[in-house]
Amino acid sequence: MSGFDPRVTLARPDLADLDLQGLVAAERYAAPTVRRVVVPTAALRKAPDPRAEQWDQLLFGELFRVLDVQDGFAWGQAGRDGYVGFVAQADLAALGEPATHQVAVPRTYAFGEPNIKARPAGLYSLNALTTIEATEGRFAKALAACGRAIPRDTDMQLAFFSAIAEAERRRGDLVFWKGHVAILLDPDTILHANAHHMAVAAEPLAEAIARVEAAGGGGVTGWRRP
């Protein structure tokens, strides 16, 4: 698969996406079957095993293109960000109606009935995708749908966004290191989840750059504007 990133290419030596025929080598090619995620979050794993490394996480309503099924896991490609791996079959179902709404808060509950005192049926994350079937007061009856997003890994994000000069940086821009990214709160302050604080923290940009270099992580690899 020379020239193709295996993280986002639905192909392996024995089987590949039909759309890749003539582009990558495989014993056979097939058209994926599109399914949707029907749980609040679904792990996309390296192997068909619940203990395998998690490469990505799919949200309620996202599409997953299934090319093979083995040991209770579906092997395929995430519709939102293109990552390839294994998802538990029980977390997927047939397609529903197209998306009409997207969760816009960090977390929100779903209830079995239109009452906040009812037993929660699930906790759904920011950017989960839904179809509103009906409303009752300030409650909505939701069904799953689909969507897409930017790449998850920092090297692909670096290539995805438009490059800017360091001197042009402003609030909302991104600063990249090898394997890490932070967002600028202002030209001299960043917000990022990092191992030094073991938390999401805001800190001076210059201090972060010096600390990463001192720890052997190298210098800034790029500045980007979403």
Instruction: Please provide the count of β strands.
Output: 21
Spatial separation of the terminal alpha carbons: 30 Å
**Largest sheet composition:** 6 strands, antiparallel
Which residues sit in consecutive blocks of at least 5 with pLDDT less than 50? 144-148
Q: How many helices?
A: 2
Sequence of secondary-structure elements: EEEEEEEEEEEEEEEHEEEEEHE
Overall pLDDT score: 87
The shape is globular
Helix content: under 10%
Rg, Cα atoms, Å: 20 Å
Strand arrangement across the biggest beta sheet: 16-21-17-18-19-20
Output the structural class.
Answer: mainly beta
Strand proportion, as a percent range, falls in 35-45%
Can you describe this structure?
The protein has helices at residues 154-160, 205-214; strands at 11-12, 15-17, 29-30, 33-37, 41-45, 54-59, 63-70, 73-78, 84-88, 92-93, 101-102, 107-111, 120-125, 129-136, 139-144, 162-163, 174-177, 180-186, 189-194, 199-204, 222-225. It is globular and about 50 Å long. It is built from two helices and 21 strands. The model is unreliable at 144-148 (pLDDT under 50). With 226 residues, it is mainly beta. It starts with 10 loop residues before the first strand and ends with a strand. The strands form six sheets. A six-stranded antiparallel β-sheet has the order 16-21-17-18-19-20. Strands 9-8-7-4-10 form a five-stranded antiparallel β-sheet, with no helix packed on it. The chain has a three-stranded mixed β-sheet with strand order 1-2-3, with no helix packed on it. 8% of the residues lie in helices and 44% in strands.
